[in-house]
Amino acid sequence: MKFRQLTALFIVVVIIAFTAIGCTSPGTEESNAPKENVHKEGNQEEVITLKIYAQYSDDDTRIPYDYAVEQLKDAYPNVKLELDIQAQDDGQKLQIYAATGNLPDIFQVGTSQIKTLKESDNILVLDDYVKSTGFDKKIHPSAENLLWNQDGHAYAFPYAGNELVLLYYNKAIFEEHGVKVPETYEDLKEAVVKFKEVDIIPLSIFAKEKWITTALYDVFATRLEAGGIKKLDEGKGSAKEKSYVEAANRLHELVKLGLLADGATNMNYDQAASLFYEGKAAMFINGQWEIQASTEKLGENVDWMFYPVFSEKPEAKYAFAGGAASGGYAVSPYSEHKDLAAEVAAFMSEKYCEAKYLYRANPLLALKIDPSLEPIEKFPPMMEKLANELPNIKSTTAFAWGLTEPKFKVAIEDQSQFLLTPGYTPEEFIEELEKTVERLKK
Asked: How far is CA 132 from the centre of its chain?
């Protein structure tokens, strides 16, 4: 009897012990406290692998990506990224992924690709995530156009800011000939006349390339219409509006006064840059990427100026021509973990910005950087100046390669190049441009 009682007691104890073991989750002996941003399913922590399609080809892409991944390990310890290196194929591989239903959870996308992916329902609308992650509070005012699509929605978390068209000038030449650095259109016109009198080319431009002739026209258009050529590309305006007509008239007026070198529309970059570096031209137009080369050639004698404003709209000083560089991180609407993927995409974009600022001496970013962070490499003076002015820039437009309507792109490139020849009239420019704009509205 006593033996049977002891046996029964032993069985009860064993059952209780096994029951306790069965209710214990694996790994709970390490810690019962959840980690920050740990995704959970049921009562167990789960390692989530997200596929990401991203650039990873040189220091400008590898360093920011590696930095972001290291930061991700701390913020999202249960997330693992599986990298698929982006092909340099103008987005063809991404389109194949979309067409075959194989989009990765997160993918880098350019602004021109968003339109196609949006039309085929292959990109997640990120509006709610922009707000829940606080991304909208971190964006630079000048980069709002990169976050919010023209339809009012967000489809990617941008990391690269807008690149800018800059007017460079040789300070020594201006000082030697007593010419004021232009602040207004009238100043610019006076400078053109004075430089022509002493056989100095007022402005050097490699107008054989049509994207830069488009940019020059856009510089003038933004003096009265901040949207510049981008507004026309989006079908929101008419080429016959005063801003576009006046831009054509005033640019052409300067061309007839001798703004450019003879044969400018047959001149390539090397030829045009040499005129500026050798002191034969007082000004030069190019993107902000010209800063390093001009600094190496001219040292302290080179600087960039704000585009001269028109008297009708003096506040246009901070409206810039330029546009999106390389888009940002988008998310597949078919991702199994799309909520988590959206959070990670926003995080990667933010850290990508930090790395470009810290290690690549690049302040042209979509997001504001913590002012306590100091770049490892010192900015050249012109880049430092640009970095300081970046928060003040109110708007940017689009480079020719960033235009979304192919027919408009061809039209504005051709017409802007023609406008730089004395025999072509502003009226012809506007008439031809308007024909294309009207066709796009039908």
From this structure: 22
Helix (H/G/I), strand (E/B), else coil: 2: helix
Residue-wise pLDDT for 345-385, tens only, equals 999 999 999 999 999 888 889 999 888 988 887 889 999 99
Whether residue 344 contacts residue 79, with contact meaning beta carbons closer than 8 Å, is answered with yes
Which whole-number Å values give the CA distances from 166 to 34, 37, 188, in the listed order? 50, 42, 15
Which residue shows structure tokens 């970059």? 269
H or E, element range at 203: strand 201-204
The hierarchical CATH code for the domain 163-323+395-441 is: 3.40.190.10
Q: Length of the chain, please?
A: 442
> Where do you find CATH 3.40.190.10 in the chain?
46-155+326-363, 163-323+395-441
Radius of gyration (C-alpha) of the chain in whole angstroms: 28
CA dihedral 364, 299, 308, 263 (to 10 degrees): -100
pTM of the model as a whole: 0.75
Residue type, 272: A
